[in-house]
Amino acid sequence: MPHVRRAEYPEAHSSYTLEYVEVIHRHHKRTPYADNAFPVEAYPWYCDDESLLYYGAPFPTDGANHSTNTYWRVYTSPSNPLAPRGFNGTCQFPQITRGGLDDSWQHGKDLYGVYHDLLGFLPEKFDPSLVSFRVTNNIITSQVASMVTSSMFSGEAHQNLPLLVQPPSIDSLEPAYTCSAAKNNFSEYGVGSNDSGWTSHLKAASALYAHLDTISGVSPTDSGFHVSFDHYFDNLSARLCHAKPLPCNASNPSLCVTQAMADEVFRLGQYEYSYLYRDAGARTLEYSTGSYGIWVAELVQNLRDAMHKTDSVSSSNRTSSGIRYRHNVAHDGSISRLLSILQIEKMVWPGMGSEVVFELYMSKVDRQYYIRVLWGGQLLRSSNPTLGVLDMLRVEILIAYFDGLVGQKANKISSLCSI
Question: What GO MF terms are annotated (predicted)?
Answer without folding.
Answer: phosphatase activity
